[in-house]
Specification:
By secondary structure, the chain is of the alpha/beta class. Strands 14, 15, 18, 19, 28, 29, 30 and 31 form an 8-stranded mixed beta sheet that branches. Strands 6, 7, 9, 10, 11 and 13 form a 6-stranded mixed beta sheet that branches. It is built from 15 helices and 31 strands. Helices cover 23% and strands 29% of the residues.
Length: 540
Amino acid sequence: MNRILNHRIWTLLIGCALILTSLSSVVWLLTHNGSVYYSYLPEQLQQVTTISSTNTIPEIEQSIHQLSLENHQYVVTKENGDIHLSNKPNEGEILHERYYVAVTAFNALVDTISSQELLNLIATHQTNSEFNSVMFTSVSKEEINQIFGTHVSDLSLTDLSALRETITSKTVAVIPFDQLTPDLKVLSIDGKNILDTAYDGANWPLKIVVTVSGNEAQPIIATLRHAVPERNRNTSAMTSMVLTGVTAISRGVEYAIEQHKDTLFPARGVMDVLSKADITHIDNENPLFDNCKPEKEGIVLCGRTTSIDSLKAIGTDIADLTGNHQNDYGIEKNLESIRHLQDAGIEYYGGGKNEQDAQKILVKDIKGTTFAFTGYNYFDSLNGPGYVSLAKGDHPGANYYSEEKMNQTVTEARSKAEIVQVDYQFIETYQYNPIPDQISVFRKTIDAGADIVVGVQSHQPQKIEFYKNGVIFYGLGNLFFDQMWSVPTRQGIIPRLTFIDGKLVSIELLTTLLFDYAQPRFVTGEDRISILKNILPTGQ
């Protein structure tokens, strides 16, 4: 790479009409007499540099580094030579892929849009029943024309911060994939979900590709890889986590398993989706042990060891043990249950074999993002640290809560991880809105440094709140439990969270309805809308 380049002029192309620069500007390619110019508008020219045949590759790199255009991306080409840049994927080696996504307000009830509907909004301002306007960040008319093969005369441009403040459920915004934030809802396009790591991006309708062809294509790509990322959507760096509500495999759930002669019966409606997540979270409320004889009614709960099959079927990685039924059958059965979870490869937190084990911080590193999990049984802690369901000394049970303890633990977790999640077994209420004490405690946990706070006590879904830099799920409802006696207790939400490079970038809400006293199934249409209307944040 240190050899002298061919005796032809090498030209530095800053940005190019096909590659975005910083998140707020686009640079156009302009050349004149062997020199290169850059401009934020074509008529505003400013000379930058000329790279000639005497420049080695390291010297070209040095020229790139010396440019005072922070966050810009660069491409090198040879004027009148055999290096060619194209926006056609089949015309050479891919230098850069840039994905755009369609987003709307988080509280929107619609989940998808077609590329034709989006084109109609952009090109002709033709509205539909769901959306009446479209906005953009960091995109140019030329790029939109390239993507859709149409002519756009004007664009409604804004910055990301302003977009997040003003977007409504009637607005679609087109933003680069790497600008995603969790308070924006990502829309599927033509049935394709850009957040699905199994989707390779083929035929994604909002994508710009830059290819390099010619004898020097590979050296050019290798040289510029430090300045030009291969793509702004890298599935290998995307971590997905699903959060699930109350799992109490006991009573009617065990009866349904017995009637169907199928230990996977509870999981069959959701396991194909949940098992694909990098982290699958459950709230395990009661012990699971070998000689359990489940009661048909009452609130003394246990499940059979074989029922862990359903937990494994949904791909359970971590279990919250903050529930107040862990010691219903005594400490030995609780300890046995924990051993069975460990044998199944399930890690736990929020409860444990003793006080020290119960209050530990569970740290996991997945695809370059580090997570810390902890949890508390707030409700039973109101009875004091010696209450029967709580861990004390060598006694197993759930983690005791105090505000001072929470602050110290969250501070420690913050020092160990990029993402801190705290779960609460709070006071059970059968309503969509959290009670004032719940709001206060959960917000204080965000104030202490948590990113995600989850109420795992709720037997029906509760509100979602974006508070400061965190997100609060006040209640998720039931996953595996037998409460068929009302529509709200049959309802459930399963947040699917996407993380990239240590940041939460998107939240999808999966919605479920309980059937046969044991089996949640995903729901769409009116059943889904009925759930979302009661739990989504207001004000957008």
